[in-house]
Specification:
It is a single chain. By secondary structure, this protein is of the alpha+beta class. It is about 15% helix and about 30% strand. It contains 4 helices and 12 strands, in the order ββββαααββββββββα. A hairpin with a 5-residue loop joins strand 6 and strand 7. It is globular and about 55 Å long. The two termini are about 25 Å apart.
Length: about 260
């Protein structure tokens, strides 16, 4: 049985993400809050729970028509325009042409930010006074957001998910993320960025079962100006909802073994 254990510390207690073959359970996670109970003991909005975006942004963050395997959808980009520099627009067209093989998702890489937030998989938010952890079903990816007023550290290696530092502005969690590599895309359509990517997200709880998600993208190597995406996120309400496992690395390994046996 394939099993992976991810540990994080919330205050004095450890939260353990135990991934079974086909099932992931979050030990130490409190029961879902009663409807209307939307604040933590520290009076912050309570974002904890299992959430999912219901958009087609993972296929294309802009307006797009249906294609085989691609549902039609309206875009999540404000103004439906991504302000690419001329060279980058040409690169995006090249990515689109080769999207069937070039999309980093096809290699099971971690999806990056913000793509992880609107892939067609659920994710679970765990919240403490000093950090917010997001556990994603896709590829067992985990994201830790520090909300302890610490600054981005200097000199650390770039990474797929970047370094995230958050702060509360009233009922909105604002997350500033930098230190990305340049290996992720925003969607399957080839929209991309460089290692100069700077992402600012805003999570605003609007009710017990939904929150507004807004993300501003800045990358002076690729775009002529910052641009913004907006979408709602919805709480999963099934009585026995839990985060399961999508072990895409194992799937790729199985495909490789089968190809070698032919």
């Amino acid at each position: 049985m394939n099993r992976r254990i991810l540990k994080a510390v919330a205050s004095a207690a450890a939260l353990v993400l135990v991934v079974h073959a086909g099932t992931a359970r979050l030990s130490g996670q409190a029961a879902p809050p009663a409807r209307g109970a939307q604040r933590t003991a520290s009076a912050r909005p309570d974002l904890s729970g299992i959430w999912q975006a219901l958009t087609t942004a993972n296929w294309n963050v802009q307006d797009h028509s249906a294609e085989p395997g691609v549902p039609a959808g309206t875009g999540v980009v404000e103004g439906n325009e991504i302000p690419y520099q001329p060279w980058a627009l040409a690169k995006r067209a090249e990515n689109f042409k080769g999207r069937g093989t070039l999309d980093p998702e096809n290699s099971c890489y971690m999806p990056g930010v913000p793509r992880a937030m609107y892939m067609p998989f659920p994710f679970q938010i765990l919240q403490s006074p000093t950090f917010v952890m997001i556990a994603f079903e896709y590829a067992q990816t985990v994201r830790r957001i520090h909300v302890d007023r610490t600054a981005h550290p200097e000199g650390i290696p770039t990474s797929w998910m970047g370094d995230s530092r958050g702060r509360w502005e009233g009922k909105t969690l604002v997350v500033d993320t930098v230190n990305f590599n340049d290996q992720t895309w925003f969607d399957k359509a080839g929209n991309f960025h460089s290692d100069a990517l700077h992402v600012v997200e805003r999570f605003t709880l609007r009710g017990h079962d939904h929150m507004d998600y807004e993300v501003t993208i800045e990358d002076p190597k690729v775009f002529t100006r910052p641009w913004t995406m907006k979408m709602p996120l919805y709480r999963r309400l099934e009585s026995h909802v839990q985060l399961l496992e999508y072990p895409c690395v194992s799937f790729l390994e199985d495909e490789y073994v089968k190809s070698r046996q032919k």
